[in-house]
Structure formats: structure tokens, C-alpha cells
Amino acid sequence: xxxxxxxxxxxxxxxxxGHDVGFCCLGTTRAKAGADGFVRVDRDYVxxxxxLARAGGCKHYVLQSSRGANAxxxxxxxxxxxxxxxxxxxxxxxxxxILRPAVLLCKRQESRPMEWIAQQxxxxxxxxxxxxxxxxxETVARAMVACVLQPGKEKVKVLENGAIHELGKx
Length: 170
What we know:
The protein is α/β, with parallel strands linked by helices. About 45% of the residues lie in helices and about 15% in strands. The chain has five helices and six strands. The strands form two sheets. The protein has a four-stranded parallel sheet with strand order 1-2-3-6, with helices on both faces. It has a two-stranded parallel ribbon with strand order 4-5. Helix 1 packs parallel to helix 2 and helix 4 crosses helix 5. It starts with 20 loop residues before the first strand and ends with a helix. About 30% of the residues are buried.
């Protein structure tokens, strides 16, 4: 594990050298970082990490994005996720897999009351419609690994929530 300062990411290029596969799940919230901080973390840091990974020899990059990501969206969150998807694809990896999970079901250390309420509701909905509105983070992690172990022929592959559930079962 290498600890890097994302404000000086270029100084840590060596940490990105010699890896065939890169996984990126980096992100924050607007509430925690503010609008500018959210853009810096979720778009700028992620894009710079992808560039460093590619320069270091990475051939397959796996990016966790979000359901509804769209660079043309009027909503900051979805727009930034769409923009970073475009930036990562433009880096030119041999393979790029983008996962677009719905609401992530997980236990957090920090308190996010509205997210907790949503998770309780969506956890109950998931019993009836297991792949519709949410996905456990463990399922996303398994899907990320599976897409590397079973890469397709396409240069860019986008996995929506249902496909993440399916691949995460493997």
C-alpha cells in the first residue's frame, strides 16, 4: 500500500508504475467537501490517477462511477461522474471497465443520516427487487475483480447495476 498526497499526485508517479490493472473507487460527497472539493476529488484526482496509471503501464482500468452518470446532466453529481468517465476513457487503456452502481449498501464509520434512511428503505426494497435500486459494496468489489479475470474484447465496457449484480455473484 502506498500513501499518496492527492494534492501532489504527480510527485507519486512511482506508486503507479508496473501495474497491469488499476481499480478506482475514489470519491467524496458535496456535503463533506463542498462543490469545488467534490469536483476536485471525483473528477480531477480520478482523471490524474488514471493518467499516471496508464503512463506506468496499466492496461486495464476499472472505474466505479454511478448510475445515471452523464456529462450533460444538470445535476453536479451526475455531470461530474459523466465527465470523469469520458476523461478516463480518453486516457487510452487497452481495456476500460466502468461500473455504474445504484445506491451502495454499506456500513460507514461516519454519520450520514439521510443516506442511512435511504439504505434502510432500499435494503427493504432489495428483498423484493434485488437489482433495481441498490447494490451491496461487496457485490461491486466482486464484479470489479471478475471483469478483470474475464475481460471482454471491447475496449470500453460499461456495467449498469443489474450487470454488476450478475457479475458480482460469480
